[in-house]
Amino acid sequence: MNKSLYLYTFVAALGGLLFGYDTAVINGAIPFFTEHFGLTDAMKGWAVSSALIGCVVGALAVGKPGDYFGRRLVLRALALLFLISALGSGLAWSFSSFVIFRVIGGLAIGGASVLSPLYITEIAPAAYRGRLAVTFQLAIVTGILVAFFSDYLLLNTGINNWRWMFVSGALPALVFFVLLFFVSQSPRWLVMKGDIVQARQVLREVNPETETEQLIKEIQNSVNTEVLGKSVYLFKKPYLKLVMIGIAIGMFNQFTGINIVMYYATDIFRTAGFSTDSAILQTVIIGCTNLIFTLIAMRIIDKIGRKRMLLTGSIGMTFFLALFAVAFISGMKSILLVVMLIGFVAFFASSQGAVIWVLLSEMFPNNIRARGASIGSFSHWFFNAITVFLFPTVAAYFSNGKGIGYIFLFYAVATFISFFFFRKFLFETKGKTLEEM
Predict the structure, then answer these.
(1) Rounded to an integer, what distance in angstroms lies between the CA atom of residue 362 and that of residue 372?
(2) Dmax over Cα atoms in the chain, in whole Å?
(3) Is residue 166 situated within a structural domain?
(4) Residue 391 per-residue DSSP state
């Protein structure tokens, strides 16, 4: 791997860092903007999930522009949306304006969740594709950790601390926008647009050891211009099965409950009896766990494969989710609750967390890759939005805080079911070029 490949991967992965930062920064801000705006449980759920409405729309809508204008140009537009959202959310003058700017941020997150890993996948050599694509997830968990840590550092900055938490996301958004002027278009997109000369140059730049002419011919042979132009083919053979698998992958990812932990960990720990300061500090510990085990996944994904990681992770997550659920329902209020969530996050980060964006960006053929990945990502954000919106209301429905335990029991069952789905329907993609698949 050479400097250009590292640079292009790093820049694209910054979309993941903003993805993680923008989704997690709200965690520490919840108690403060809830008090500032005087929100009910339902309104608090809407405040958190409103960004996810943007994520759903952004993920579903970005496929066609990504195919028409190219991954790089659309990523620049998304970087500007990240910037507008960070500044607007922090300066919001009313609850309605706050929600609007969070939705704008959601559009950026949804779009980046499709195009950033897609760009990395399309420039990466087959032997390193898993490792490089996982840098997107590594950037996400880094963004989450930085957001948690920023929330903790800004905790005692006064009554406007929650505003500074959101505004702090403007700097990485600006850096992302500027650096996107220093990367090339995706070589596979260039071939699909007929710019063979530029595609050849980019391929030689990022992977000088490859048989460039042979790879270009393989890409050309894999492209069906009729399918490229019409989305209806996504729902016909031979593509329909892949699309349905992509939708299921996004759904099962959210039915682990990972984003409930990332958005509501502070509230969960406060319900369990911890102070606000202690609860926010524990989210930093969870963020560190997420980062460490993502690094481990990055080292092993191209060695042991995507499918085995998913199967192992499903069993480990089920175990810790079930333990946490039973402990919460029984009324346990101790540091063991934190340990159980750490165990869950460790298994998630080393399996589904690392694998989902890799799979969604590589499992679809060139003809439908951007649009197929868009639908898989849409599924992820759709179920994310539903679960995050309903969580405060469902949790409050049961007395003594036991609702949280019942919710996590549901996630334990769903994650156990995912084991059998992955074993039956997923195929291994490690070490194969995108065209071979």
Answers:
(1) 10
(2) 66
(3) yes
(4) H
Cα torsion for 322, 325, 327, 331, to the nearest 10°?
-170
Residue 129 lies in a domain: yes
Mean pLDDT across 118-131:
82
- pLDDT tens digits, residue range 276-326? 777 777 877 888 888 899 889 888 888 888 889 999 999 999 999 999 999
Can you tell me which residue has the tokens 């647009």?
Answer: 193
Q: Would you state the pLDDT for residue 235? A: 66
In a domain, 89, yes or no: yes
Q: Are 281 and 152 in contact (CB under 8 A)?
A: yes
pLDDT value, residue 227: 47
DSSP letter (8 states) at residue 40: -
Residue type for 175, please?
V
**Domain CATH number, residue 25:** 1.20.1250.20
Q: What is the C-alpha separation between 120 and 124, in angstroms, rounded?
A: 6
In a domain, 46, yes or no: yes
b/e burial code for range 271-307 (CB count within 10 A of at least 16 → b): bbebebeebbbbbbbbbbbbbbbbbebbebbbeebbb
